Amino acid sequence: MTTLTAFPPVRGKLTPNAPLAPLVWFKSGGTAQWLFEPKDVADLQGFLAGLAPDVPVMALGLGSNLIVRDGGVPGVVVRLGKAFAQVERVDETTLNCGGGASGILVSSTARDNGIAGLEFLRSIPGTVGGFVRMNGGAYGREVKDVLIDCDVVIRSGEIATLPLSELGYTYRHSALTDGCIVVAARFRGHPGEPAAIQAEMDRISAAREASQPLRSKTGGSTFKNPDGAKAWELVDKAGCRGLTLGGAQVSEKHTNFLINTGEATSADIEALGEEVRRRVKEQSGVDLQWEIQRVGEA
Question: DSSP character for 91?
Fold first, then answer.
């Protein structure tokens, strides 16, 4: 294990053996060898620049699209706090958003400033850093449709501004390398009336409430939609609705969601997902791909 004396000095908070289960939606999983909560961008840059290059680094947002395996995460997990959760208007159609800001905060700030087109971010249960990295999307729109550019701190501690064209976006994927951390992004919408923007946000919120198990310990959409198909339909056709393994269950409300019914381990949840993939492959011939990120050691 890396010793504390090997780390550069920080102004933020550095915690050894930090439990990650309370920080992720599934409420399961092991500890981070080190959890770093930087005070600001300069603190993050200095820390990464002085960190031995062989120490792995992973960013953690709201923990919505994530299985942390029970053996924990080696190296450093970086969590961006309030200093990275600011959202401000740049001009009539543009917002500058910190990497730790939630989709709800971004869409609400857009509404307050009469910027339409960002309402769908209301329904992405994560932070700017997370959904910029994975090209998050919902209700027919994706981050690539509204992103101008983003600021990333790379593993060496240097900061770079990357335009949309350099992110290599495809469905739920970007070309951002492991270890780099999105600390800010600019989103562009179009002029709109706050009341109409709020109405669209309300419509999206009601649709999510009606169709998704939002009151459960879940991780969001489990599998990517294959070309020309919907993951939930394939899971349903394979007879997996309500399927359980240990403390994990396929949601009966939305079959592309896995649930921790109480005391599920991350191993239960991941094994259930793999069993669903096996049954779908057997029933329909489709090889479902995980959308949820799985990290750490079993």
Answer: E
